[in-house]
TrEMBL record, chains A, B:
Keyword Signal: no
Molecular function per GO: DNA binding; DNA-binding transcription factor activity
Swiss-Prot/TrEMBL keywords: DNA-binding, Transcription, Transcription regulation
InterPro entries on file: cNMP-bd_dom (IPR000595), cNMP-bd_dom_sf (IPR018490), Env_Response_Regulators (IPR050397), HTH_CRP (IPR012318), RmlC-like_jellyroll (IPR014710), Tscrpt_reg_HTH_Crp-type_CS (IPR018335), WH-like_DNA-bd_sf (IPR036388), WH_DNA-bd_sf (IPR036390)
UniProt-listed PROSITE patterns: HTH_CRP_1, HTH_CRP_2
Organism in which the protein naturally occurs: Rhodoferax sediminis
Protein name: Fumarate/nitrate reduction transcriptional regulator Fnr
Keyword Transcription regulation: yes
Entry GO terms, CC: cytosol
Every HTH crp-type domain range: 181-254
Length: 265, 265
DNA sequence: CGCATCGTTGAGTGAGCTCAATGCATGTGG
DNA sequence: CCACATGCATTGAGCTCACTCAACGATGCG
């Protein structure tokens, strides 16, 4: 296993002129359908039978609505009642917890096609908060509908289990990272994971724009923002990266991967 | 949330003379039944309807067998095909990953009544290995049977989802610990969590015997075995603990809790 | 324009790491 | 039963990586 470590961090990268929320608005009036969605290969439907996807599409649109988010808006807060699972349509989110001293601990980043909110199933309340790191759009999927669907379809039932299990595995990898890697290894793992996820979505694997601050990266990786910044500079001096604020170009992915040769077996 | 952080670590503590595996052997010949099990309140059946438990009991015993383990034996290896979920009947286990350099990363500890192996659902292979830290006994529950049961019972379906989600939440807390706590806070959190879990099983919350080495604790908490040892000594000097090798007595649980006042909200 | 946010860099410090020695308990074989 | 080996825990000494505190520039927003 090659460190799924960071199946979580993310940043949707679009170099094409960004659509403004206004430009995208008209589309929202039509009923969203999984079967038409450009993310159906990556998102929830990828593990569902076409008949189940159609059943999902057939559900009341009020209960399965798109929701437009502005940067810095919070989709749900920790402790809030858990009702929906959210699929990211566009934009980037962070999941985080607030510690007693006011500091926040970022537990994951989510990009287009990824699901958020499954941690709420355990208690019926969200265990973390989800905040948009840029203007974004999500599909709100009522969890009750999903379980209803699952009741009649072992395929969908398995899908939900697999998605949750994947989350468990992802977090195990992150624990590994936090427990046994130094600053350079952590940042390298983060960037390579991000790169991989972007590539799967058709974006460039070697050049992208980070949507999160140094502080957020640091919180996620268990280091301070200063150390993140210094490590970026170090990578640049080693000619592994070109860094211009949040714009990243990976020059030597292999050397970067070599920075964290922590592989199993 | 009061740091579920360590819903994982553990150590079943029995001061009563330990039964030898031989002494327990005869019991194994009878068909194990959840409905009789002394752990039914804690284990899988706690979230199931009695009719579902009976259906679980009705399944072929060959497919739902107890398995006796010797200390240091491995129940399953990472990468191995995922077929069973295991419930710990007695003894303690660790889950771990092996890093490229040969070091092991412990990702959780499991005590009686706890489930292991759900990380295998994602890929169909176990993502981690499970090793007995002492002589132990598990129930092997075929995952296929569980999903079959779930197909006909939304209650069991929800239970599986809840168990997985709980695992996600647990790991999030651990990430929080690894990302933002110092050595004393980590060890305090570990001990208090362990204490809580033991108490739930009827053991003393204030005095127990660790089944894992300092190195294993260190791996789990992201620190070296020397630091674990020094931190135990420091707690002892602060009169928070009495430590004699693996025997622990918590003298001042409140002060210990104060050592990691990292609570949400 | 002024203020806030973000990122970079420097200097000094310290928590936890590495390396090493020692003690204790247990197991094994002569 | 003793000699020896092995595994685990403790403790010390020194070092280093990442932290804290601080200053400063760039960017963007009201």
């Amino acid at each position: 296993m090659s460190l799924a470590v960071l199946e979580a961090p993310a940043a949707p990268i679009r170099f094409a002129p960004r659509q403004t929320p206004e430009a995208m608005a008209p589309a929202a009036s039509s009923k969203p359908r999984c079967s038409n969605c450009h993310l159906r290969e990556l998102c929830l439907p990828s593990g569902m039978s076409s008949s189940d996807v159609m059943r999902l599409d057939g559900l009341d649109s009020l209960m399965f609505a798109r929701r437009r988010m502005r940067s810095a808006q919070t989709l749900y807060h920790e402790g809030e009642r858990f009702q929906f699972v959210y699929a990211v349509r566009s934009g980037t989110f962070k999941s985080s917890l607030t510690l007693a001293d006011g500091r926040e601990q970022v537990s994951s980043f989510h990009i287009a096609g990824e699901l958020m909110g499954l941690d709420g199933v355990a208690q019926g309340n969200h265990a973390s908060s989800a905040t948009a790191l840029e203007d974004a759009e999500v599909c709100a999927i009522p969890y009750a509908h999903l379980t209803e669907l699952a009741a009649g379809s072992s395929g969908t039932q398995h899908l939900i289990s697999r998605l949750m299990s994947r989350e468990i595995v992802r977090e195990q990898s992150l624990m590994m990272l936090l427990g046994s890697m130094n600053a350079e290894e952590r940042l390298a793992a983060f960037l390579l994971n991000l790169s991989k996820r972007l590539k799967a979505r058709g974006y460039s694997a070697s050049e992208f724009h980070l949507r999160m601050t140094r502080a957020e990266i640091g919180s996620y990786l268990g280091m301070t923002l200063e150390t993140v910044s210094r490590t970026f500079s170090a990578f640049q001096q080693q000619r592994l990266l070109e860094v211009d604020k949040r714009h990243i170009r990976i020059l030597d992915p292999d050397a970067l991967a070599g920075a964290f040769e922590i592989r199993v077996h």
